[in-house]
Design a protein that fits this description.
Elements: H1 17-23, E1 28-34, E2 40-41, E3 59-63, E4 76-77, E5 82-92, E6 99-107, E7 110-121, E8 128-138, E9 143-150, E10 156-157, E11 166-173
Antiparallel strand pairs: 1-3, 1-11, 2-10, 4-9, 5-8, 5-11, 6-7, 6-9
């Protein structure tokens, strides 16, 4: 399949395979990846997400637009201008330390406004999950990364199994 920038049908426009395929993109999941092994997340100032801790994606289940490269496993690179919805999830292993757990969505290395999610945590022995979503206007070449943060005073491991970190990116609309 080939996808092109496609703002919509106009009278007299010829139907081509590229236009038909591109008109079906809005609302479609175009990328999904998970982090399957634990990643150590050091204590960060005020528990803020830190780009030094971005997740390295290990299992890519969907990559319809070809934005993932094993040579840069922390990034999803936008291949088509448009609005995208980024659904982010991080989970920390059970830990009796209280504090804050956070997750941030980064666009081309910069924490996105409204892309910073926080959970205050009381001491328990349960996995702590932080989730959030943000819609972004991306241009071809922009890249998206996801990074956690925490402030327990020491390093924490991310969870594995059913609660492992994941990212899902849906194409919302053409520009």
């Amino acid at each position: 399949m080939a996808f092109i920038s496609f703002p919509g049908w106009q009278p007299g426009m010829v139907m081509t395979a590229d236009r038909l395929e591109s008109s079906s993109l809005p609302g479609r999941l175009v990328f999904r990846a998970t982090r399957d092994t634990s990643q150590s997340i050091p204590d960060t100032t005020s528990a803020n997400p830190d780009s030094a801790n971005v997740f390295s994606w290990e299992s890519v289940e969907v990559d319809d637009l070809g934005g993932f490269s094993g040579g840069s496993p922390t990034r999803y690179t936008c291949m088509l201008d448009g609005w995208y919805r980024i659904d982010a999830k991080a989970a920390f292993n059970a830990n009796v330390a209280g504090g804050v757990r956070t997750l941030g969505v980064f666009e081309t290395g910069v924490l996105v406004p409204s892309g910073h999610f926080r959970n205050a945590k009381t001491p328990t022995n349960f996995v702590d999950t932080v989730t959030g979503f943000v819609s972004l206007l991306l241009s071809a070449g922009d890249y998206v990364q996801m990074a956690p943060g925490q402030n327990t005073g020491g390093a924490l491991l991310t969870a594995t199994g059913g609660t492992r970190p994941s990212i899902e990116i849906s194409f919302n609309r053409h520009v």
